[in-house]
Amino acid sequence: MFMKALIVEDEPRAQRMLENLLHTHFPEIQVIGATASVQETLGWLSRNKADVIFMDVELQDGNCFDIFAAGPVDAQVVMTTAYDNYAVKAFEVNSVDYLLKPVEVDDLRRAVERVKERLAAPAPVDFSKVLEAFRQAQAPEETSFRPVPGKPAREKFLIRLNDRIVPVRTDEIACFYSEAKNTYIVTRAGRTFVLDDSLDSLEGSLDPKSFFRISRGTIIAESVIDTVSKLLGGRLRISLKPGIRVDADLVVSRARADAFLDWLQG
Description:
Layout lengths: L2 E6 L3 H14 L3 E7 L2 H10 L4 E5 L1 E2 L2 E2 L1 H5 L6 E6 L4 H8 L4 E3 L4 H16 L6 H10 L19 E6 L2 E6 L3 E7 L2 E6 L4 E4 L3 H4 L8 E5 L2 E4 L3 E6 L5 E5 L10 E2 L1 H12 L1
Parallel strand pairs: 1-2, 1-3, 3-6, 6-7
Antiparallel strand pairs: 4-5, 8-9, 10-11, 10-14, 11-12, 13-14, 15-16, 16-17
Helix pairs in contact: 4-6
C-alpha cells in the first residue's frame, strides 16, 4: 500500500531522523512535506493531502491540538512525543497511535502497520477527547535524578573500543544521548563513544547537581551550558559554550522547564 506522508516536527534533527527511517525501512511511504508550526501545517493542509501525518505534540507556536481545533484532518495521525508519562496516558486512553522520541524503527513499524489497517477500514477519532485527557493528565513530570542511597556518584566511565579500553572522566562529559537504541557519551573535546548503559540507568549513578535530563533522549552537563533561550510553547533551547558541539536535540520540554531552571540556578 503506497502512502503519502507529512511530518510535523519543529526540531530539524528529529525531522531528519524520522524521514531517514521512513526512507530506509518503508519504501511504500513517500514523505511529501514537512512543517514546523501550527500555522505552517494548516497552510500545507489547505493545499495538499496526505494519507498519514507524523505529528509532534509541541510545536513552535502551540501544540498539535490547535491544528485539529481548526477543522477536521483528513489523514491518519501518529503522534510523536518526548514525554513518557502524561501525553502517552492521554493517547492510550483514546486509542491514538504515538511514537516516543527518539523514534525506534520497531515502534515505527508497529505504528505503520496500524495505519495501514485503519486506512483499510477507517474509523473517526474524536481528538477533542484526546485533548481533554491530555490536559487532565498534565501532572508534573519527574525530572530529578534519584541516586542510589549510599552509592557515590560515578566519576569515570570505561569505554571499550575493540581491544582497547578508554577511560572517560565524568567531568569531561558534555552530554549523554540516545539514538537508535544506542546510548552515546559526548565529551567536551567533541569525542563520541557508545555506552552500554541506558539513560534510565545513568540517572541513578550521576551527580544530580552536575547533570540534568532535559528530555527522554538527552542528559546535559551543567558545565557546558552557555545560555538558555525561551521558545514558544514554554520550552527552552540550550546553547553550549564556545568550542563545544553536540549532535543532539538540546531542547528542554515544557514539562521539565521549571525544574531545569531551578536546577540551573542551583
